[in-house]
Specification:
mainly alpha, 16 helices, MFS_dom, membrane, transmembrane helix
Length: 430
């Protein structure tokens, strides 16, 4: 997008006002809605990645030696995954604004508990609670946009918000490192507390209730369980959801071990944040490329090619690491390329999961987010905990997860890879 196009976009967002059913806050500007959505989505990425430079200090503070400190990351992701499945029904029954404010309030409380944790076990429990609270921001941000706009305009808003959201994993480790240069690790949680508090105040003052009373759906546990079962019983949804859980395991394994590998094993120290930002930027670029080419080549052709490339690159890289320690000049670009291929898989797998959802789009989205986060956290933690002072466990683990995902995709598509189902997908669940 050029300067003129960006200026036109800013002018458009400032000119459009969206009506809501809330008599106290009847309108919301398009630009502010995009800013709100971006900020709510970014909170989760910030809460994970800002912690990476501080993991050694946190480990020393709680006598969590070696690989134990990785659990500060994976416990958060696990809480985030488990809670997502509950937020959809709650937001449909109680309204978006109320549930979001409670979610952000619980996030601030959990952050305070992290600061007050007397030992490592309590720290992990508080981090899991922090992740569970933050899950509400992901679910409700999308629901608010869906309430106010639809069709291509909704897709445009989400795309713009995701563009800004991508800045969070790029900048977060650098922000954490900057805090550590002048203060202790506790101040990182202080920054998260301030961010959560500012978001809570912003939502309290400006966010309207976007779900009218007549459109609210009472919570019925039996009905919710039936909908989750029907969503999971679709072959395409189940297959790509399972495959996505495996590849997300590779992502979380990388995040959990990134500081140990790059800052300590390769001796980058304070330059680790910059190296991590480079990989995150590569992942962002791959998402942008995917958005540009997916209409031409299709979700299956891109994601199937990417998963084969991901498996081969990490497999070859792991074989090299088994023979000799890869120099950083080789390790870093190959790892970055693997993460870029992950970007080609993640977005398309998500779309393929949602393709047969029909009227159960909300249920399917919550199930997908929960399964990928929980499965990814468990698999990523297993790989992370096998770190032995070399890059081989990470690379071999990612290659193995890629191969497992490839087998699942092949079974899901009944052996017809690359273009199967592009013309006619499975019918939506009834």
């Amino acid at each position: 997008m050029g300067v003129a196009g960006f200026a036109s976009l800013i002018s458009w967002t400032n000119a459009v006002a969206l009506s809501s059913p809330d008599p106290k806050r009847p309108t919301l500007g398009m630009a502010e809605l995009i800013a709100m959505t971006s900020a709510l989505m970014a909170l989760n990425a910030l809460s994970i990645d800002i912690m990476l430079p501080a993991l050694p200090d946190i480990g020393r503070a709680f006598d969590a030696l070696g690989n134990e400190r990785q659990l500060v990351i994976t416990s958060y992701v696990l809480g985030f995954g488990i809670a997502q499945i509950f937020y959809g029904p709650l937001a449909d029954a109680l309204g978006r604004r109320t549930v979001l404010l409670v979610s952000l309030g619980a996030y601030s409380l959990a952050t305070l508990l992290c600061l007050a944790a007397p030992d490592f076990g309590w720290m992990l429990a508080a981090r899991a609670l922090q992740g569970a609270a933050a899950a509400g921001t992901r679910v409700i941000a999308t629901a608010v946009v869906r309430d106010l706009v639809s069709g291509r305009k909704m897709a445009q808003i989400i795309s713009i918000a995701m563009t800004f959201f991508m800045a969070a994993p790029i900048l977060a480790p650098g922000l954490g490192q900057a805090i550590l240069l002048v203060a202790s690790w506790e101040w990182i949680f202080g920054a998260l507390l301030a961010g959560g508090g500012l978001l809570w105040g912003w939502m309290l003052v400006r966010l309207p209730e976007t779900l009218s009373v007549e459109n609210r759906i009472p919570i019925r546990i039996r009905s919710a369980l039936k909908n989750y079962w029907l969503a999971a019983s679709n072959r395409i949804t189940l297959g790509y959801m399972m495959a996505a859980a495996f590849i997300f395991g590779g992502l979380f394994a990388f995040i959990a071990t990134a500081e140990q590998i790059m800052a300590e094993l390769y001796g980058l120290d304070v330059w680790f944040a910059l190296a991590f930002a480079g990989i995150a930027a590569g992942l962002a670029v791959s998402n942008i490329i995917n958005a540009r080419i997916v209409q031409r080549f299709g979700m299956r052709k891109i994601s199937h090619t990417a998963i084969i490339g991901f498996t081969l690159i990490n497999g070859g890289h792991a074989f090299y690491a088994l023979m000799a320690d890869p120099p950083f000049w080789l390790f870093y670009p190959l790892l970055t390329l693997g993460m870029m291929l992950f970007g080609m898989m993640g977005a398309n797998f998500s779309a393929l999961v949602m393709e047969p959802a029909g009227k159960r789009a909300g249920t399917t989205s919550a199930l997908y987010g929960s399964v990928t986060a929980i499965g990814g956290a468990i698999l990523g933690s297993l790989i992370g905990q096998s770190f032995d002072g070399s890059v081989f466990p990470l690379l071999a683990g990612m290659a193995g997860l890629g191969l497992a995902a490839l087998v699942i995709v092949a079974i899901t598509e009944r052996g017809q890879m690359f273009s199967a189902g592009e013309a006619e997908a499975d019918a939506p669940s009834p």
